[in-house]
């Protein structure tokens, strides 16, 4: 459980660095984003910088939903994951999503004070969506694990 909490703390620190680091006053897409778009287009997949940015906001908060729910339920790598379903897992998932929303809102409000950063309501919605997807995937994992028959000892 300690490793899980540390992993979550490191993840949160990384999110804060990525989202709150001052950036140059420029509206041009960063070089890495253009390279990713070009790579997708090179293999025949349509991609735009706008879509990449939106998808990045969702993906950035997926771990929030997963790790937040695991920390909240107290289930570590060796814990009884299926037991989480009997302890109000959906209510806890909702709490994780709400917390993801509050964190995203706080980040966006903070970005209003940081040079070169632009806050948008879209980012809050997409980050919250990522947290919700992460929590839902975790609940789904718990459900599958619980539904799976126990291995027979032979």
How is this structure best described in words?
Helix content is 69%, strand content 0%. With 154 residues, it is an all-alpha fold. The protein has one domain. Helix 1 packs antiparallel against helix 3 (49-73), helix 3 packs across helix 4 and helix 3 (49-73) packs across helix 5. The longest helix has 27 residues, at 121-147. The chain is globular, with a radius of gyration of 18 Å.
What are the salient characteristics of this protein?
globular, 5 helices, 154 residues, mainly alpha
Strand and helix map with partners:
Blueprint: H1 2-20, H2 31-42, H3 49-73, H4 89-111, H5 121-147
Helix pairs in contact: 1-3, 3-4, 3-5, 4-5
- What's the helical proportion of residues? 55-70%
Shape: globular
The percent range for strand residues is under 5%
What is the number of independent domains?
A: 1
Calculate Rg over CA atoms. Answer: 18 Å
- Residue-averaged pLDDT: 86
Q: What is the helix tally?
A: 5
Low-confidence runs of at least 5 consecutive residues: none
Structure classification:
mainly alpha
* Oligomeric state of this protein: single chain
Protein name: VanZ family protein
Transmembrane segments: 51-72, 93-114, 126-144
Pfam family, one: VanZ
Keywords: Membrane, Transmembrane, Transmembrane helix
């Amino acid at each position: 459980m300690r490793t899980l909490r540390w992993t979550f703390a490191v993840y949160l620190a990384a999110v804060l660095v990525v989202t709150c680091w001052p950036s140059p006053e420029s509206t041009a897409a960063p070089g890495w984003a253009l390279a990713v778009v070009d790579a997708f287009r090179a293999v025949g997949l349509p991609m735009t910088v706008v879509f990449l940015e939106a998808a990045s906001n969702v993906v950035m908060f997926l771990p929030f939903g997963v790790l937040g729910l695991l920390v909240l339920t107290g289930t570590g790598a060796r814990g009884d994951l299926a037991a989480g379903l009997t302890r109000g897992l959906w209510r806890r998932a909702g709490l994780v999503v709400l917390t993801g929303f509050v964190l995203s809102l706080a980040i966006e409000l903070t970005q209003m004070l940081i040079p070169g950063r632009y806050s948008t309501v879209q980012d809050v919605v997409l980050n919250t969506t990522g947290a919700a997807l992460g929590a839902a995937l975790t609940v789904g994992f718990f459900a599958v694990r619980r539904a799976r028959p126990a291995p027979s000892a032979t």
